[in-house]
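Hmm, how's this folded?
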Amino acid sequence: MKRLILATAVAAVAAASAVSSSEAEEKLVTIVTSPDAQTQLMAMVLTMQAAQQGADTHIMLCGPAGDLALKDAPASATAGQPPRDMSPQGLMQMIRDKTGATVEVCAIYLPGRGADQSVLLDGIGVAMPDAMARRLMDDDTRVLSF
């Protein structure tokens, strides 16, 4: 009788573990550093697809790609790209607005420009290295780097 109860308890714990791990939310961190508008746009396309499939998405922009976060962004960030005439910055904002994705510039982007957070689009923050490192190291996180 004790064996039956023990076996049942072990089976229940195993089943609960399987359910909780299969229900673990997928997390995606997209890191964009490329200055190329087409590469930036493709990074946003894949991030949007992941978000639409249920991933908790986080975008970090660094180096030349940090310009996507600027209120006064260069034409390469705002010009429409084929085939749908969407800009990297426009799709990035759409991802943030429609999916709740977090968008941040890397911690050294603004100091490197000699600027402060006032130059960034509303709703875009600055990534804290410790928090970003934890996010990247999380077992449930996938990282895309462009």
User: Anything to note?
Assistant: The helical segments are 2-22, 37-52, 75-78, 88-99, 109-113, 129-137. Residues 1 and 7 are 10 Å apart (CA to CA).
